[in-house]
Amino acid sequence: MKILVAVKRVIDYNVQIRVKEDGSGVVTDNVKMSTNPPDDNAIEEAVKIKEAGKAKEIVAITIGEEKAQETVRKALAVGADRGIHVKVDNVIEPLAVSKILKKIVEKENPDLVFMGKQAIDDDCNQTGQMLAALLNWPQATFASKIEVKDNALEVTREIDEGLETIEVNVPAIVTCDLRLNEPRYASLPNIMKAKKKPIEQINASDLGVDINPRIEQIKVEEPPKRKAGIKVASVEELVQKLKNEAKVI
Amino acid sequence: MSVLLIAEHNNKEVRPFTYNAITAASQINDDLHVLVLGHQADDVAKSLSEVPNVKKVIHVDNEIYENYIAENYTSAIIKHAENYSHIVSSANTFGKNLMPRIAALLDTSQVSDIIKVISEDTFLRPIYAGNAFATVKSNDKKKCVTIRPTSFDPADKSGGSAEITKSDPAEVSSSTKFLKKEEVKSDRPELGTARIVISGGRGMQNGENFKLISDIADKLNAAIGASRAAVDAGYITNDHQVGQTGKVVVPDLYIAVGISGAIQHLAGMKESKVIVAINKDGEAPIFSVADYGLEADLFEALPQFLSELNKLNTIQK
């Protein structure tokens, strides 16, 4: 089996987001960037499946500006075999991302496509499902357990009520939840080896898909600030305040 | 201009977030129709027809809709889509799984997880786990929108009498099979919808000490949360994680115990109505978002808190 894993470069989850004064977006200059956390789970799962002898090749793909390559390089360092970087200059919407991924899938013919369930920047939670729709493949979203069977996957999904298990025929799209696994750290020798692994660069404009935005971002603003609270002196006072002032217990 | 809302239900009852989504959907346009895909789900269709905001219920009853499979739902929804300007659902795991599949087939760029309807094409939505709010305008002809349920009050459930029309099923997908559903059989409410959440952080020191938290959770009928630090340290499983990479919660009362208040944790809870912080470090960032801060050793404060609660006789179950 061949697994394509899509990774996205986002602002690191530990960075305090700052909104630009002109309301055009958030500050990204000189801000620490990392791989979108659930995309790390997607790579980890692909590597585990390969280690179990059930996959032959893992291809990591990212779509973004020049520096987005770092996320592919990191995926190569934890076990992906080769990388693809589709270059775009601007931020594009999940619909456009899924159209690009469809083109790559048609070229690479993977059996499975893995990615994180949601990116922690735009919080859209769309790309995997959209790609599944465009390819007319089954989708298994929010996966917390994956069992590889003959030409099928048994996937346990995180849902509001608890867990749901479905079986999807291969080829399929899986979006990964944080509970799926514990992503490994890359060892230094593997980071060195990853530098020699190939990353193919493709210009999005050469793929012949419409990636123009459909959604206009009118403004980005800070959420309303909470008004300052008070310090209480004792547990007794706390309970009295919660009961008589806030009326929440 | 009519809005089609996809109902979430278990074939017997409407799932509660559908009512919150109805409120938002009827703010987009008051000609709101609801699509019920289910098996022997007449009671669901009837309940929804009694919601005053609902103008029409379309009921498709077939065994292929007994379990919720996005592929099967999508083909049925696409059949009805041409009559509507907007397709909407709640932005919980139901709608998040379903709506992008519909949107892609309609060649629409979806607007996810809206918290406010500004006009029929313009919405407010949180990005970066609520650390910024974006006002976005959809320029697609047909709009696909998911609604953050906790940002809208549930619609009134009775007094209406919308017409129920039956419709035929669409094609069934052979590539996805439902196997089983394991509902969490906990006496505690779900983290995402609980009225009270009490969370522990690295200050708990180990997993056993979470007993101090669970005793209070039992007393308050609260859900138990945790910071990423507590999850990473192995004190508790990550389905309890509140924060940017975990769950975003908006309870009436959020109690943060031994949590310093890392940015990524604050992102998951700072919209809570009332926030309590218990931490021995008076400088901890969590105090900057807390309505009530108690600077204290949690190992002393939590048992006291429990005994004070035991003295009250108004605890809601």
Describe this entry's structure for a reader:
The complex is a heterodimer of chains A (249) and B (317). Chain A is 27% helix and 31% strand. Chain A is α/β, with parallel strands linked by helices and 249 residues long. Chain A has a single domain (2-245), classed as 3-Layer(aba) Sandwich (Rossmann fold), CATH 3.40.50.620. Chain A has a nine-stranded mixed beta sheet with strand order 9-8-7-10-6-1-4-5-11, sandwiched between helices. With 317 residues, chain B is α/β, with parallel strands linked by helices. Chain B has two domains: 3-166, Rossmann fold (3-Layer(aba) Sandwich), CATH 3.40.50.620; 196-311, TPP-binding domain (Rossmann fold), CATH 3.40.50. Chain B has helices spanning 17-28, 42-49, 70-81, 93-105, 210-220, 228-232, 263-269, 298-311; strands spanning 3-6, 32-38, 56-61, 86-90, 111-114, 116-117, 122-127, 132-138, 143-147, 163-166, 176-183, 196-200, 223-226, 253-257, 274-279, 292-295. In chain B, the strands form three sheets. A seven-stranded parallel beta sheet of chain B has the order 5-9-4-1-2-3-10, with helices on both faces. Chain B has a five-stranded parallel beta sheet with strand order 13-12-14-15-16. In chain B, strands 6-7-8 form a three-stranded antiparallel beta sheet. In chain B, helix 3 (70-81) packs across helix 4 and helix 5 runs parallel beside helix 8 (298-311). The two termini of chain B are 43 Å apart. In chain B, 56% of the residues are buried. At the A-B interface, helix 3, helix 4, strand 7, strand 8 and strand 9 of A face helix 3, helix 4, strand 5, strand 7 and strand 8 of B.
Question: Concise description?
Answer:
Chain A is 27% helix and 31% strand.
Q: Quote the beta fraction of chain A.
A: 25-35%
> Which class best fits the helix and strand makeup of chain B?
alpha/beta
Q: Overall 3D geometry of chain B?
A: elongated
Largest sheet of chain B: 7 strands, parallel
String of helices and strands of chain A: EEEHEHEHEHEEEEHEEEH
Examine the secondary-structure arrangement and name the CATH architecture of the largest domain in chain B: 3-Layer(aba) Sandwich
Oligomerization category of the chains in this entry = heterodimer
Number of separate structural domains of chain A: 1
**Fourth-level CATH superfamily of chain A:** HUPs
Instruction: Count the E strands of chain A.
Output: 13
What are the segments of chain B in which pLDDT stays under 50 over at least 5 consecutive residues?
A: none
Spatial separation of the terminal alpha carbons of chain B: 43 Å
Largest protein interface, residues of each chain: A-B, 80 and 96 residues
Number of domains of chain B: 2
Strands of chain B, count:
16
So, the CATH homologous superfamily of the largest domain in chain B? HUPs
Class derived from helix and strand content of chain A: alpha/beta
Tell me the β content of chain B: 25-35%
